[in-house]
Amino acid sequence: MPGPTKYVEREIPQISLRDFPNRIDSITAQLCDAAEHVGFFGLADHGIAAAEIDAMFALSEAFFRLPAAVKATVPWSPRNAGWEDRSQVRPSNVVTTSKLVADNKESYQLQFGDEAMRGLWLAEDDEKRYGVPGFRARCTAFMHRLQAVSEQLMVCFARGLGFDDDEYFVRLHDAARPDSQSVLRLLHYYDTPRGGGDGDGEVCYRAGAHTDWGFLTLLFQREGQGGLEICPGRESATEFGADAAWTRVKFTPDSNSIVCNIGNLLMSWSDDRFRSTLHRVKAPSSRREGEGGKDEDPDDYYGERFSIAFFNQPCRSAVIQGPKKKYPPVTGEEFIARAMDTHFAALKKATLEAEVQQQQQKAY
Ligand SMILES: O=C(O)CCC(=O)C(=O)O
Ligand SMILES: [Fe+2]
């Protein structure tokens, strides 16, 4: 059972993309510094207007407010796309609660490719009928906006890592290729019940501690809907940072900042120079006092949270190897398959350990 979270203030670098062509050297230096030392940074002056972001959040909320039966017509598929509801069980959830607890959220994952999205978009007539007209076109346009911002970062990272070709990462993440794997994830976290002693004792996690396994994640959050926390450098004695000092990633209103973080793939692609950083959306909480609810803090936020994440993932056939060749080459497809295997192996291990713990408790 987790104890109260320790919090520390850490500076999360804020990087401006203003005047990108002329400032590319200084932006590259700032990005590489943030990627090496924190793994997280905020991006300002990225060119996506506040109105565009607001409109995308409104569209996402309209989708999530649809009846479950409608959302279930575009169900999650192992192609890493589609809608899921309270189905993502993370190893960290199991380790900290000793139960198979899923994140208390729903999400809808979208990709560029027709094949990946086969049967996973609402039909045009249904978009109109259910009050989300133009949903597919608007989401796709927003993905292209995020792709363009990501490509600027990719050019900087290619330069900073010493690849000869500035477009190296850009080519391997080409959204026009049919084997593109990048994902836009609309997220909706449900209200989290607080420990009160009058409920059924269900323990809720919003998003358990994890690192992202892709290349680079870009995330929008909303003012007043906090919860995202990071644990830089995995400064933790335990696997998922339960005893570590966490830092809240606050919304920065004046810059429309995009929260960016390095994924495991860019970490290995940089020969471990850049770091992927443990993060989570707090908090474990419970309807029954003392069950997970121990981790409550006066600054916690328990209301609904909407966020939008864009996961840059290399095309399936991309060959991935760092400039110093620390790791043998792997394709984008292999990397993701391995990430899945690692995830399920960790889940299996955590589940077995939780079962053993429960048996021990019964025995004494
Ligand atoms: O919603 C958030 O703020 C974080 C989401 C996240 O970390 C993820 O989906 O990987
Ligand atoms: Fe994440």
TrEMBL record:
<dbReference type="InterPro" id="IPR005123">
    <property type="entry name" value="Oxoglu/Fe-dep_dioxygenase_dom"/>
</dbReference>
<dbReference type="InterPro" id="IPR044861">
    <property type="entry name" value="IPNS-like_FE2OG_OXY"/>
</dbReference>
<keyword id="KW-0479">Metal-binding</keyword>
<protein>
    <recommendedName>
        <fullName>Fe2OG dioxygenase domain-containing protein</fullName>
    </recommendedName>
</protein>
<feature type="domain" description="Fe2OG dioxygenase">
    <location>
        <begin position="179"/>
        <end position="314"/>
    </location>
</feature>
<dbReference type="Pfam" id="PF14226">
    <property type="entry name" value="DIOX_N"/>
</dbReference>
<dbReference type="InterPro" id="IPR050231">
    <property type="entry name" value="Iron_ascorbate_oxido_reductase"/>
</dbReference>
<keyword id="KW-0560">Oxidoreductase</keyword>
<dbReference type="GO" id="GO:0046872">
    <property type="term" value="F:metal ion binding"/>
</dbReference>
<keyword id="KW-0408">Iron</keyword>
<dbReference type="InterPro" id="IPR026992">
    <property type="entry name" value="DIOX_N"/>
</dbReference>
<dbReference type="Pfam" id="PF03171">
    <property type="entry name" value="2OG-FeII_Oxy"/>
</dbReference>
<dbReference type="GO" id="GO:0044283">
    <property type="term" value="P:small molecule biosynthetic process"/>
</dbReference>
<comment type="similarity">
    <text>Belongs to the iron/ascorbate-dependent oxidoreductase family.</text>
</comment>
<dbReference type="InterPro" id="IPR027443">
    <property type="entry name" value="IPNS-like_sf"/>
</dbReference>
<dbReference type="GO" id="GO:0016491">
    <property type="term" value="F:oxidoreductase activity"/>
</dbReference>
